[in-house]
């Protein structure tokens, strides 16, 4: 059976989906409705459920698997599901949310294998031990969490996938610019977004945690590094630990984007630029996949609200 | 005998001073000179030593006490010392730098006493224990360090003095706005700049440390708080510890000024505003003290480069 | 009986309220409705009246007292009144708008008393006479007007209440920083927002006047001061009158916020900062009062659109 | 004899000039020198007087006419006078500063005549009376003052000349866009910079006055208008007086440039644009007159620091 | 019969109009509607067509002439047409879109005549030939196209009208400032927006073309100039061709507004300012024509979103 | 013999160097001096020649090879040559400037070879032909010119070297993100800075040309592409030519940096990011090469004036 993102306009759909979001809203006519985001492994699609009763609002919560009958339409340039019918699953039907979540295009095992290989290239023993210590501490979350609530890599395993891709880019740059400190760059890449596992609530219905909002993932990794030093008996104000902390704190590149310090060592600047490239590519690929050739994508918030043109078949 | 900042224009000076800074520069005519900042307890004054030999450059280092003969002049609107003669001190003459450093106008004992009183008003036991733990850990530095390299409170005990004054302002606000959480505000005030004792090198010839430049005092305190939690067996992601960390991380008020998060709890906003007021007052008072009535102060970097007018005798 | 802001979600309401605003809008379905803001002394609440006839639009004008039957709901995170029934009051029922307006938490008499005390501390005779002259001229409005159309202190007596609170803060600062010119600061505080009585239309249905929009309250006070000089035979270009005018013109702190000059005397900078603090505290207190612990307030326009977190019971 | 701005590079000069500015500075070698700006009716030129004694500093004050022997050179792309000899004038020699000041290229009588004609086109009686009243009050200064301390129209009669040229532009626009209120535009043009006669100290050695710095010429005209209303018994909050005040307050176009309100009536926007054009043209013409074809002018502060290219002989 | 922009509120209308835009939208109640913009020679007005069927959506396309029965209302401060009935025209009824389009207030012949006169004043032969060549190449479009999609001069002949008006302003400035190179200024004015004929799709349903979005009209004219040089055998890197290209590339005045270079010759700065004035005047006149005296216009996007006040009858 | 950039502090030097720049300046003491930049294949170093006579100024022009005796010193943190003696070369001594110019670290033949390989991967025939056509037209300059006047790649062959390195990065990205259009990306990389050969005057004493200043290298390449279309009989407004022009016009990424359009196709965004990375790496490597470990580099203009820390021996 077709997945929800594989449907063409006006194609009808009947099948199981996960409720990723279920916002209760009031229409201009004073009636309550549910603004759903449905999800299966192909991606997600919005749909509105009109005149929702209190009972229905409670029944169709985010995180539930449901059986949906509807039709794919277009609303303000975006795909939308017109809902004909919606019901909870029966006991014998599939109801594990895990089965319906969008996932990184690479398997966890492959990513884990790659990461393990890279660890051998982090030759500074302090950095190596800290990276291993923290990867081990948050192993479960690292391979499960998305890299963001929305925008880019917002799917199961997104954090590990983003990290893996950045390691590929990092290796290319190290090859082109051998003056780069490869150990430092790889350690920085692996740790830079690890704070997301504390900043976000998880992969299922991703929200910012309180500590995520009030402290933020940059400082959260930094704290983890200094505490790892305590645990591993490494002097936290030694030169190599200072530069490692700087790598993660500076990786947003600008104060305006939440880095408390701007990159002031070469590898920190490179880390920031690699992060930028992979985030841009993910957002672009995502937006372009929803757009016909010869048309413009929706405005992409993470790329200063630009909309991009998708050229017609130029080879 | 008169101190260096008490001299009027064209008044001659003879006495002992501390070399606070000694920059080696090359004049446009190709000759080397020393750009000194001399200091005694009244403040500091610049002076140029022309045609310095290599031997003189080594002899008159920053941190040395010297005997100076000269005359107070004005250079580009600022006081300047014309140097007639300069020599190192003899063994029997005063040569302890401590005797010549500018100090907070309140004695350490008085500040310590005040601080101890305030500790009793921090009724949340976690905050209380963390503040005591860190004050104890950095007690020596807290009462010795300046609050900045230059700009404001750049004198011995400046950090403690800045903190004490802010506590006074904090108490006034708590009285006016009883809805404020006084414990949290006082804990935040005491800790907010404590990272300066790691960011800066000390009171004598104040420089930024490497970790100061690459991590910064906001994150440095935050790390100290989380490590204090480990030492004191306090859960670091409990609500009260999160808001305490937020207080120190957000106190610069804007991302552009180096806070990784903007204030998002009421007391964090207040802490930022109190900090602003005391810094402004210190800079203004300092600049105005060097300016005649009816004239404009030099431009004040920390106040967006404004110069201020000093009104004539309006009561 | 409960006031409108004391109701909990889903609680029904029956009673008299004032129509503060009544905007005529057209729904997406082409029908006309009224977007009301109802008010009593506890505050205000929005409510929509669907399918309004022309007669109803004219009947339920802003400024009218009405009898409302409804239920408190939540709409997009804000309280909302679902309207069951709405009718004008009968002759024997309460219909004086004054009885339903939100008011400063301090009585006018108390504020007046305080202000009179402060006048004795303005020892410069020119400032003293000008302040008395203008307070006298606008006495009625000063104690009646709000300090703003919305945002902060938008209630009856808000202008006087804002001024009184700022005088408290001013006194604390004068005590902490005795180098401040207390007379000038107090005179500046009392006059700084007095132009609001010309800029705004009044307390009942507050709008900007034409002169408010095209000239603005900063310049309006300044004009009043120079005209008071004419009336009182004070030379308007004497030093003390210049600095007093500067106080009011500069109190927004930045050109971007509508001050034609930035603060360039010490007391003008302080006046700006005190104004900032009291406005922030009012907006924060207002927003937090509508928010549960553990939640975030709505975005606060006057605080750069931040939403604030309300910590759970941390003592 | 040649004037100072007519000299070519390396041409020698001998004659009388006015000392427009005489700044006392200290060279890097510790010696005092005088940085002069000399002036005659052709314009001004800088020159340095090395190793000035105290007596010489007092002798060669700004405002003095002197006899200068020297040579025109180039210093950092700008004309400069190398001083061979400098002496005060003898009693029988010319010593009236007025004879050496740069002046508007149009005679005062011609400008006065033009202005009088325009007054008849201001048909609104309030505006007409106010303009006449204020022109009469400041008649002497209006035709004598420059329009700025430096930048543009910084010469005797510059204010009247700037005003006259703007009236020409205003008339062209009224002809092209007959929907404009000509009375209002002309009244606004005449008054817009009149506050300069209070903001600046005069034509000879132009400085900002205290009230100029702390209040500024926009508000100063506005005050004059409201006081003229008192004198002429015109209601100052009538619609026509409000828009006239708005014209002068808004003419800098942006809050950032010191207008307390942005233009919000059509004629205010036009006034701002005309002001811009004439100021730009004056700055450009001035800078280009000092630059060879095929070269770039010095950077022009008032045009966002751009330097302009002067095309070679393209017709 | 009355035109659509001549109707007063609540006046009924029956007649032929052009569908300028027809956006398909979905209402909050899930039903599809058409958001029309109707047009006749008096201007345009919006109107909503509720519950549109697929057949109706296809029938009432942009570019069609229709017979409309309805009533002029007001929606959110703007005029709106309530649609009673809508049908296609019968064969014998008017159906040429050209008859219903808004047009420049000056006839094409008059503009053409004026332009021809100006061509004689472009005395530099290169500029003269290039301007003639390009005007000839795009003659049809130049007199047909609007000067923008919306904002200003968005009507048939808008480009030529904008150009003609700017030539008037240019001549006034040349008269006032004879140092300007009139040939260059006139050539620049005529060419500056000519790229619009490639950037936009035409006068009927104006859209940006792909090359308009991805290259933009400034560079498009520049390309045309260099290709005209090839055709006319003029050296494209001669001084006069360089400055002509600079004129068109710099005419937006700031990099932020899409000029790849800022104006760096005098005439380029003037061209930018004239362009500004005419665009502002068009937008203001347009907005004010829809606003009652004593009221504020809608916010004008092209004037930094300001709304303007329309003064009551001040003469 | 040692090259000038291989000298340590205080090491004496005797040998042949090229005068890269020779600015005539006036010292504060009124005397003329020459501010030289000397160059050999190791890089460049500044040096001041005091009290230069007119004859010496003419003798020691930029572009001359000279024999220099001097000593390497440090001036304001940068290397400087103290000049003992300077003379022109004798006929039998080396005097070809080419021998002394800094060059790309890769030989021209190698870069040419690489480029030729890449041409085969540009499979779109239009792009392929245009790239070949323009490379052929500017072959000599492409391999000779620097990529900038200063900042990055300011050496012989810098343009080709910058292009080659970017092609490496481009290939890595194409491998990682196969959805990218490789042909378009490679064509864009090769052409993006080709306009520099018109914008700059050459490799020896690099200056901006007039057309460089007034048109700029982005538009200059764009013009070349459209003219190549004419020569090759390719329709310039076909989709593939439009996107190619967009690639070069948008590659500065932001309007503020001189792109008339922001990147709006995926490959244009990638081109901009690759350009950024290589420019950053070149500037960083250059600055770090002049800095000791444990110290900070000079401020780097092209990296928002940041100075970077060079970590001590962390592996």
Label this structure with key terms:
homohexamer; 315 residues; alpha+beta; OB fold (Dihydrolipoamide Acetyltransferase, E2P); 11 helices; 5 strands; globular; YhaM_exoribonuc/phosphodiest (chains A, B, C, D, E, F)
In short:
Chains A, B, C, D, E, F: Its EC number is 3.1.4.-. 6 copies of one chain form a homohexamer. By secondary structure, chain A is an alpha+beta fold.
Question: Would you mind describing this structure in some detail?
Answer:
The structure is a homohexamer. Chain A is an alpha+beta fold. Chain A has two domains: about 100 residues, Nucleic acid-binding proteins (OB fold (Dihydrolipoamide Acetyltransferase, E2P)); about 180 residues, no CATH class. In chain A, a hairpin with a 2-residue loop joins strand 2 and strand 3. In chain A, helix 2 packs across helix 5, helix 3 crosses helix 9 and helix 9 runs antiparallel to helix 10. The longest helix of chain A is centred in the C-terminal third of the chain and has 23 residues. Chain A is globular and about 65 Å long. The model of chain A has no long low-confidence stretch (mean pLDDT about 90). Chains A and F meet through helix 5, helix 10 and helix 11 of A and helix 5, helix 10 and helix 11 of F.
